[in-house]
Structures are given as structure tokens and as C-alpha cells.
Design goal:
- It is a single chain.
- This protein is an alpha+beta fold.
- It contains 2 helices and 12 strands; from the N terminus they run H-E-E-E-E-E-E-E-E-E-E-E-E-H.
């Protein structure tokens, strides 16, 4: 029994350690994005998913949007809500710059003020979290 409990604790630790932290500008934890695309809030409750094909789902597995391979972000009706450029520039559907995701994971608004951190998280995933879909 002790061995089983130890294995469960070890697996849980590995699972938590594989998640990348999303932080606000004060370094407070907002949530986590796991390498498989599972999005969790700061209490580790699952609030959404980003699938390998770019489909974005809420916790009930309802599709709420899409990330296209060219960086286009769409809502569930396939209407474009924005773009993530290869340099980390985030634009709305009118091509106005609304922010930046830097290579070090720093997330900035259009005025270059830091609004959060997403170190080790794909730029598209960070942009979806901070600018297009808020997972609560």
C-alpha cells in the first residue's frame, strides 16, 4: 500500500512539473499549460484544451476557437479574431498590434507594458490565453 501511494505521489509530481506556468505582471500564478495542451487554473482545475490540430476547447470539450498553422486565431465560427506573427507580434482581426509575446516568455501590451509571463509556452498558446480567449 505504501508503495502504491509513493508511485501515485511521484506520478502526480511529474504531471505538475511538466506544466508551464502562466503568470500575471506581478508574477502571481494565473494558471498552467501542460505540454499536451491542457489548460489549468491556479488551483490545477482544467479549464480548457489546445489540441494538436489547433482546436481550442473549453473544459466541457466544446470548441471555442482554432489556431491555424499560419498563426491565424479564429473563433468557433471560423471568423478571424487575430494573428500571431512569427516575431511574436499579436494583431487583432484588423491587423492592429495589440501586444507582443517575447522569445523569453514576457507578454506585453501594445504600449510595451508587461502584462504577464509565459516562459516555455508556445507563442500562439500564450497569445490565445492573454489576448483572445480568457480561461477562467
Amino acid at each position: 500500500m505504501k508503495k502504491l501511494l509513493l508511485i501515485i505521489i511521484a506520478l502526480a509530481s511529474i504531471n505538475i512539473a511538466s506544466a508551464q506556468t502562466i503568470q500575471n505582471s506581478s508574477y502571481g500564478t494565473e494558471g498552467y499549460i501542460k505540454s499536451d495542451g491542457t489548460i489549468q487554473n491556479s488551483s490545477y482545475s482544467t479549464v480548457g484544451y489546445i489540441k494538436s490540430d489547433g482546436t481550442i476547447q473549453n473544459s466541457s470539450y466544446s470548441t471555442i476557437g482554432y489556431i491555424k498553422s499560419d498563426g491565424t486565431i479564429q473563433n468557433s465560427s471560423y471568423s478571424t479574431v487575430g494573428y500571431v506573427k512569427s516575431d511574436g507580434t499579436i494583431q487583432n482581426s484588423s491587423y492592429s498590434t495589440i501586444g507582443y509575446v517575447k522569445s523569453d516568455g514576457t507578454v506585453q501590451n501594445s504600449s510595451y507594458s508587461t502584462i504577464g509571463y509565459a516562459k516555455g509556452i508556445k507563442r500562439e498558446w500564450a497569445a490565445v490565453h492573454f489576448f483572445f480567449f480568457k480561461f477562467n
